[in-house]
Amino acid sequence: MLRVGSKAACIACRNLVSTNMGVRFRVPLQKLHPLSRAIHHRYSGNTNPQRPPHRTAARYFTSMSRLPMRPPKPPPGSGGRGYQQQRSFWVARLAARLLRLRYILLGTAVGGGYTAKKTYEEWKDLLPDFSEYNWVIPDFVWELSEQIDLDKLAKALPEMEEIAKLLPDLDKIGENFTFIKSLLSSGVSLGSEVKGASGLHLLLETAGDPPLKATDSSAAATPESSDKQFKKSSDKEKIDQLQEELLRTQLKYQRMLERLEKENKELRKVVLQKDDKGIHQRKVKKSLIDMYSEVLDILSDYDSNYNTQDHLPRVVVVGDQSAGKTSVLEMIAQARIFPRGSGEMMTRSPVKVTLSEGPHHVAMFKDSGREFDLTKEEDLAALRHEIELRMRKSVKEGQTVSSETISLSVKGPGIQRMVLVDLPGVISTVTTGMAADTKETIFSISKAYMQNPNAIILCIQDGSVDAERSIVTDLVSQMDPHGKRTIFVLTKVDLAEKNLASPSRIQQIVEGKLFPMKALGYFAVVTGRGSSGESIDSIKDYEEDFFQNSRLLRDGMLKAHQVTTKNLSLAVSDCFWKMVRESVEQQADVFKASRFNLETEWKNNYPRLRELDRNELYEKAKNEILDEVISLSQVTPQLWESILQKKLWERVSTHVIENIYLPAAQTMDSGTFNTTVDIKLKQWTDKQLPHKALEVAWETLQEEFARFMAEYKGKDQDDIFDKLKEAVKDESIKRHKWNERAMDSLRVIQHNALEDRSITDKPQWDAAIQFMEETLQSRLKDTESVIRDMVGPDWKQRWFGWKNRTPEQHIRNETKNELERLLKLHDDHTAYLANDEVTTVRKNLEGRGVEVDPVLIKDTWHQLYRRHFLQNALSHCNLCKRGFYYYQRHFVDSELECNDVVLFWRIQRMLVITANTLRQQLTNTEVRRLEKNVKEVLEDFGEDQEKKSQLITGRRVQLAEDLKKVREIQEKLEAFIEALHKEK
To answer: Looking at the whole model, is its pTM more than 0.70?
Structure first.
């Protein structure tokens, strides 16, 4: 096989050209081997090798179709046979040449392809293995890899010259190595200066030498080493110079790393935003952290008091009030998302923040579809306001903090994936305006989250105050005494460095030597200058500038990996996912066992019932209640009117008899009777009657609604809904108000009905007499009952019932007997006794040995005369049954003046017309308004989970609720575990 451009190919090319056959091929002259170009120039007649001929040698190699097929003419005198042999010879020679050319081209192609493949394999072997970092880039990014502009990517990378500038001066480092090794070989003690140089240790370890160790300062130097020692001042200068060189190199690399990360962040954002292939149109798989967050949300709803075995990992952020824990969270989330206040408690309830990576920097609540753009200040302000409103809403009346969790998710480019819970700040004193149990409540909430054995405790300590004033460190040490899941964060390090007289105190804190608590790691961060208007970028710049110039880092008191919130977020995320992988499968087994126990209990106790949770039961009860309300519209108009008429007369009958009929009838004069009746009816209609009618209508609607609700209870209805139905009925009736505008029109209708005195036919007259008789008989019965109670048992009850009269009843009975004799003498007596009649009755009773009071005499007379009058009125009513003829002809007969019958007919007609009017208002307006109120109440109750929990109760409900939640938790945990294994 021959490779294009090789020496063998050039020789073959020369031999082929030497045939003078004029064969051409399409390879440019410039791509030929130099030896091939020289051969070409020689055989083409070009004496200048640098100047190519008009026709290049590449054009001599071409296809057979381009060859001249005319053979050379035979010499004169030769025969035709010789010419035929010569022609055959040239044809055979030409075929051989062509076959040779084919193999040359085929060998050249195969050899070139093999060489290209070998070169590709060599380049590929030089690349690092990125298979471990596949989780960084989503699956669909590989589908878009062909669409990425590689030219832009190449331009974004730094030039070699810039990278070379960032490299340290190797000559100076070599000199420093030589100097240090000479010191070590001479045995010179460097003392505390060398001990504090952490960068020096790093260099020596990198070079392969053992780390520097401080020699014993008390050891005496040998005479030989003392001669070779440098002065102490020069040694210190050399060490300081070396430290500064190392710090500068570290900072240069740090800047370069940040620049590359920023460019990588922008590239990832562009890749995530690609939608050319309709990635977002297909079903997008949820990220791991979103799936895990959903499990935690369900657990929070299932048991907010952590009574279940909920040991799933969370990052719990605790700290003293105003220690800066909210600021640390904002730096990790890369946005100022939390409400803030100077010295005021702002975090009043736990806030669960789910951090994940995404193309846009947005935030969203669990129960809301609105996205807050965290790059816009107005959206940030709205988000802070919404969080504050939710916190205040969750706090019950009389309390300061709440245990109700607010769930928030934050996505953005470059954000570390984890779940953090921001808890209210721990306080030492309850101030004015706080509930008395605020301190204990905060402690109980914090302990409930921290006692989870898999919770990662992010302990925030304010570095600007005295460490002895901290409360949270004692609390954390109680929950995690060995520090296996605690990360300590010292905030406000810039203020601490400025205010502390001894910066070594900061070193003691971050080394875990000052506090009794232990931790996995210690970090020092700076979260701005304390201004609420600072942006995240300005805080990052300030933090970076501070640590670049801080002597805490320069003197080795702080290590480079212990500073900045960026390093903190990386460490917390790694710890979080490690804890998740170690514990999630164990937790899934716990909930699987819990599900089995609950299902067994349901099968044993409720084998024939479906597992309906509280929401499903509420929907079922809601439909039943709406059916009962709709049935109100099926009540017939006749039934409505009869009920309304009966109830209205029961309400107004006393007033009609006592205040209108009896005062007018006792005048014993027809003209006075009618005048009195008209005046009293007018006053009654203007002031009381319309109000009474509306009250009756409203009560009738309530009673009918309650009656339908009660009837439905007996129709195979579940008694678990009784409390809910009663609450809906009471709340609906409470909200329903009768339309007061109907009162004016009702007053006019009632007034016109009472003004009409014309009875048109005999049936109306008979109906009025019947109504009058029923009313008078009812009143007479009531009056006789009152008199029996006054005088006590009669002789039959005393003889056969062994009952006796009291002394007061005996006096009443004697007074009654005396007054009855008076009525028999004066049958047409007036309603009132004269004073001389009272005196006569009293003296007659005293003559029989009965002492009686005048008031008792008048009271007894009132009841006796009432009975006497009602008896006479009933007798007169019987006479009026045949008086319609005289009424119709306007005849005047003293015995048949039936004005009282006309009065009762007017009252009866008013009742009928009022009942009809109220029925129309009920069926046309009020029933629909009540139905609307019922729907509103049901909607309000449906949105109030606490209300539903109070109204739909019982072991059956709670068991179905637990079953649903545990199944959902188990299913989501299994899906999360499966996705977690795939990511590995």
So the answer is: no
